[in-house]
């Protein structure tokens, strides 16, 4: 539940910035579909855009960046440890 709370916090801050990635407290984080300040754990889901996790990320049956072009640059950033299966 903590990652959901952090995601809602990020969404609220993005809303305060007016969606402009040059404004607000989060800056370029508005370019991400998911931006969490804590740990992130999911299974059998897909994030079609960019994903940034400050803490550890544990996923299985997971996809990221599928809706982005091949030259989209970095689509996944993890500040802690990454554990992935399937």
Task: Briefly characterize the structure.
The chain has 86 residues and is an alpha/beta fold.
Structural overview:
- The chain is α/β, with parallel strands linked by helices and 86 residues long.
- Helices cover 17% and strands 29% of the residues.
- It has one helix and eight strands.
- It has one helix spanning 2-16; strands spanning 34-36, 40-43, 46-47, 51-53, 57-60, 63-64, 76-78, 82-85.
- The strands form three sheets. The chain has a three-stranded parallel sheet. It has a three-stranded parallel sheet with strand order 2-5-8, with no helix packed on it. The protein has a two-stranded parallel ribbon with strand order 3-6.
- The model is unreliable at 1-24 (pLDDT under 50).
Instruction: Please identify the structural class as seen in this structure.
Output: alpha/beta
Radius of gyration: 13 Å
**Mean pLDDT rating:** 76
Indicate the overall shape: globular
Strand proportion, as a percent range, falls in: 25-35%
Distance between the termini: 23 Å
- Spatial strand sequence of the major β-sheet: 1-4-7
Q: How many strands, which pairing sense, and closed or not: the largest β-sheet?
A: 3 strands, parallel
Q: Give the tally of β-strands.
A: 8
Question: What are the main properties of this structure?
Answer:
single chain; about 90 residues; alpha/beta; 3-stranded parallel beta sheet; about 15% helix
